[in-house]
């Protein structure tokens, strides 16, 4: 690890002001950042400990719920209100990492996790995301874990978070504090980026921006929500494919549906067309199979991950079915 | 070569000393073309007061030092193990303010004021913690290297009430890898303690 | 205090010291720098940046390191038997090959400085692609051929298929580590993670051309090995060189990614098995061919086809093997080397044959198992109860009741259920070893050997054997091991540890009884003529069991002989029995799997392993070994695969997030049982080894169960969900 200056930050204003400086980097839970620093992938000159500055409460608001950025993943997953009214969030959180890491990782930091693409993680390998201009090792290399939608010739990495898939499905908002403006709100779908020509940028967080909270609007999905995660082992592994599914039902009729996936793209991916299809249909296996078929229509696998297409199709069906048994 | 001014990036690239590239595909040439020059930074020390196993330590630590390395290399509390150093194995599990956490992904400087319990602090008055006793009785280990982390995690698993079924125990103990595969005994140990 | 392992308290309290954990005054830290190209030559090092880091003491490279005497020149290197003359060559054979060691005051300094070391290379062409290379490598006969291939050309039923296994990595939880210190100019001391201290001592003695007696190697606690600790690897030599260079103790701990390239792995393997049977299911002939990967600089070879010559009565058998050289680091023995891979081909092929024959695979095996005579050597098995393992395993999992002959016929919702089984066999070896017993004045004894205990329970087994023999309570028997100054012993590996030590400990006990009789006779002359076996050890002294009691206190024995300690040693090893008999351990593995029809997810929810390992010295530790091996087998079957990038010439995803071995949730509670019949010929305890046999056959049992569940025959390991879906 490269030496750095350590600073304890007391307020959000201070955090945002200092973060705007070159080489300054915030740390909260540290579960991904420290890993990246040890690998010399992230090399801050000044490390800003913002754990004392960030909000760490879960509160109800007029429109829903606000989860402070410093709330630890396990605290959010086990929170009564989240478990009862936003169970998809709890399920997704519990599908991620390990109990130890969930006790440490912050909600804000979860949004800023970087990809787990092995080419990104090994500094001796080419990677446009880590070292722009070096090429993408995965695109015609070991890309079993890589994207099947939304990728570019520059980068085929996937976003690693489980929480974010649920947040994307529930149309959450990311609350950001910057130096120039008190509060910026970025809708979840606009927070993370696609790789395009600039895969080194994962998201649209402003340079001085500090995530202070995530807002989730109230919804009627809490009775019928499911998170399905498929991975190379039963637990403690990143997703090959994950699906967050949520249905609002009136009897057997689908009033509204949400479908999002991890393990498929550079950002949490919403399946809008399938959602539109589901709306107004009866919640039957046949409907779900048709929705899953619509989902996979969009995909375009790489040399080593064609399996993700049938796996995604199966996972969507299972997730929708699980919504009925939630 | 002249040292460059500090920039956001770790390495600055020049192409003065090109390696032979005959066998690396064209798409990745740029990477090997570059010979990196680094900005060499000096280490910085911070004073930190932490409580380890109820004992307060005030230390001057390298800002880079992890809690795990502090425990093992400075305080010689080697019960917390290094199995990967990247949060991928659970061998370094300790309790921070009563919650299980990974000491390899915690900076020592960020532990100011926090209470750390390691495996060495689990036995009280010379008497093994019930979980240590259970691991002994159920043979919940082989080589013993992941064991302190397993035990710290197991104590937390019981405290968290995640012992409702074998499947639940297994899921909530899956952050602690055991290459010897002593999972039978680990589960049995936890069931034994949870049943009390 | 409840009974546990002899070293149990040290392990559950974290007080046991593993190699990197000894407090050594003035120690400094070494961090290895690996090559960034897969093949070529080092042209120049760029060390200026690294040297600028405060705290850096030195950086050793092939240009400035202290020379290892045995690596003096090309010829002596060849003779040394050490395939990678680390820091004594400018050649690069694989990516990640150690090219420098940065030595600094702290771990943080050394790690940072190591990240600043670079080199320029003259790069050569390379090849890391096993699959496309092996077809052009010719096979050669191996082992003893039986009968002819023509003899079964008209076999009524033939299974003929190819099987592949990816490169797997041991990954013991403790990363390899060495602390080396030159206690004087010609005396070296090491705390080192390995599976055999005498092997490390002997190897260093040869390389540095110094007497073995001048080298002390300590490995009291070993955080797992699985074969990765059987050789002396480059980092050990680098640490010794570094300590010489900076004249201080140096500690080197490998990083987890380095664990994937610097301490071996199970090679990638291809196999082809053709097996024929008559209409009644009697095996007629087998052709088993295999090739496995190895490094360009090393000649590692493992016998993948051996198991096909041993397990079944097959009148015609031919086996052929080859190795494929790649620009990857050297593979080595990994739990059940050779046979573990070979059993996958053989036991899947037999399963395939069973479906052709429409015969229950349990019956097919019982009918063909060679439990009387080892077909390979034609010697009678000393003991082989594999048939009983199969019968008992089938009963325990209720095979007859639940297993359906028709594949893909049992469904629970989206889950398809299936049963599978396979057998495993491993030669039951025994080596020569020494053990010592020391008695203190208070009547406590310590049983000692240089052998390591890598988690197998060897120490506890030694305590049990000494207790059984001498009757001294276990809490008065200490065990000391893992130090080269203790009585010499071979490395712990190949399931020979306890089989070897049991003989040595019994010999030491006998020697101890003789010594006690001799010393007690100074107090009471009656002891001059006693049968030493008649001596009983009591709380305060010794007495005679059948010859009139005649108690003599320990106090008197020590006082009258003017002794501070009683100390005996004995050596024991295999003998003529090895000429007369063949020895093996056997196992039958049964699994139940659930396969998800829509997602390809495989869940193994029942495992039954039944093992014939002779007399079981310690039930708990033995069952733990077998259930642990089953978990290893699950990894081999379902999750473990080291990815290799063929274009860039290197392994990728080499960490514990990228390489998946099973977590707790992957394994069911594993049902282990033993036949438990002693093998009276192998050693005085009657105990056969069991470390390997638990993993051999586990992967094919899983693959066979997946076939039974789905009707999909998956012949390439690991069977990840993508393979299930795409089959």
Automatic annotation (TrEMBL), chain A:
<dbReference type="InterPro" id="IPR016166">
    <property type="entry name" value="FAD-bd_PCMH"/>
</dbReference>
<dbReference type="Pfam" id="PF00941">
    <property type="entry name" value="FAD_binding_5"/>
</dbReference>
<dbReference type="InterPro" id="IPR036683">
    <property type="entry name" value="CO_DH_flav_C_dom_sf"/>
</dbReference>
<dbReference type="InterPro" id="IPR016169">
    <property type="entry name" value="FAD-bd_PCMH_sub2"/>
</dbReference>
<dbReference type="InterPro" id="IPR016167">
    <property type="entry name" value="FAD-bd_PCMH_sub1"/>
</dbReference>
<dbReference type="GO" id="GO:0016491">
    <property type="term" value="F:oxidoreductase activity"/>
</dbReference>
<keyword id="KW-0285">Flavoprotein</keyword>
<feature type="domain" description="FAD-binding PCMH-type">
    <location>
        <begin position="1"/>
        <end position="221"/>
    </location>
</feature>
<dbReference type="InterPro" id="IPR051312">
    <property type="entry name" value="Diverse_Substr_Oxidored"/>
</dbReference>
<protein>
    <submittedName>
        <fullName>Xanthine dehydrogenase YagS FAD-binding subunit</fullName>
    </submittedName>
</protein>
<dbReference type="InterPro" id="IPR005107">
    <property type="entry name" value="CO_DH_flav_C"/>
</dbReference>
<dbReference type="GO" id="GO:0071949">
    <property type="term" value="F:FAD binding"/>
</dbReference>
<dbReference type="InterPro" id="IPR036318">
    <property type="entry name" value="FAD-bd_PCMH-like_sf"/>
</dbReference>
<dbReference type="Pfam" id="PF03450">
    <property type="entry name" value="CO_deh_flav_C"/>
</dbReference>
<dbReference type="InterPro" id="IPR002346">
    <property type="entry name" value="Mopterin_DH_FAD-bd"/>
</dbReference>
TrEMBL record, chain B:
<keyword id="KW-0408">Iron</keyword>
<dbReference type="InterPro" id="IPR001041">
    <property type="entry name" value="2Fe-2S_ferredoxin-type"/>
</dbReference>
<dbReference type="GO" id="GO:0046872">
    <property type="term" value="F:metal ion binding"/>
</dbReference>
<dbReference type="Pfam" id="PF00111">
    <property type="entry name" value="Fer2"/>
</dbReference>
<feature type="domain" description="2Fe-2S ferredoxin-type">
    <location>
        <begin position="46"/>
        <end position="122"/>
    </location>
</feature>
<keyword id="KW-0560">Oxidoreductase</keyword>
<dbReference type="Pfam" id="PF01799">
    <property type="entry name" value="Fer2_2"/>
</dbReference>
<dbReference type="GO" id="GO:0016903">
    <property type="term" value="F:oxidoreductase activity, acting on the aldehyde or oxo group of donors"/>
</dbReference>
<dbReference type="InterPro" id="IPR036010">
    <property type="entry name" value="2Fe-2S_ferredoxin-like_sf"/>
</dbReference>
<dbReference type="InterPro" id="IPR012675">
    <property type="entry name" value="Beta-grasp_dom_sf"/>
</dbReference>
<dbReference type="InterPro" id="IPR052914">
    <property type="entry name" value="Aldehyde_Oxdr_Iron-Sulfur"/>
</dbReference>
<dbReference type="InterPro" id="IPR002888">
    <property type="entry name" value="2Fe-2S-bd"/>
</dbReference>
<dbReference type="InterPro" id="IPR006058">
    <property type="entry name" value="2Fe2S_fd_BS"/>
</dbReference>
<keyword id="KW-0001">2Fe-2S</keyword>
<protein>
    <submittedName>
        <fullName>Xanthine dehydrogenase YagT iron-sulfur-binding subunit</fullName>
    </submittedName>
</protein>
TrEMBL record, chain C:
<dbReference type="InterPro" id="IPR008274">
    <property type="entry name" value="AldOxase/xan_DH_MoCoBD1"/>
</dbReference>
<dbReference type="InterPro" id="IPR037165">
    <property type="entry name" value="AldOxase/xan_DH_Mopterin-bd_sf"/>
</dbReference>
<dbReference type="InterPro" id="IPR036856">
    <property type="entry name" value="Ald_Oxase/Xan_DH_a/b_sf"/>
</dbReference>
<dbReference type="GO" id="GO:0005506">
    <property type="term" value="F:iron ion binding"/>
</dbReference>
<feature type="domain" description="Aldehyde oxidase/xanthine dehydrogenase a/b hammerhead">
    <location>
        <begin position="13"/>
        <end position="125"/>
    </location>
</feature>
<dbReference type="GO" id="GO:0016491">
    <property type="term" value="F:oxidoreductase activity"/>
</dbReference>
<dbReference type="Pfam" id="PF20256">
    <property type="entry name" value="MoCoBD_2"/>
</dbReference>
<dbReference type="InterPro" id="IPR000674">
    <property type="entry name" value="Ald_Oxase/Xan_DH_a/b"/>
</dbReference>
<dbReference type="InterPro" id="IPR046867">
    <property type="entry name" value="AldOxase/xan_DH_MoCoBD2"/>
</dbReference>
<dbReference type="Pfam" id="PF01315">
    <property type="entry name" value="Ald_Xan_dh_C"/>
</dbReference>
<keyword id="KW-0500">Molybdenum</keyword>
<dbReference type="Pfam" id="PF02738">
    <property type="entry name" value="MoCoBD_1"/>
</dbReference>
<keyword id="KW-0560">Oxidoreductase</keyword>
<protein>
    <submittedName>
        <fullName>Xanthine dehydrogenase YagR molybdenum-binding subunit</fullName>
    </submittedName>
</protein>
<dbReference type="InterPro" id="IPR016208">
    <property type="entry name" value="Ald_Oxase/xanthine_DH-like"/>
</dbReference>
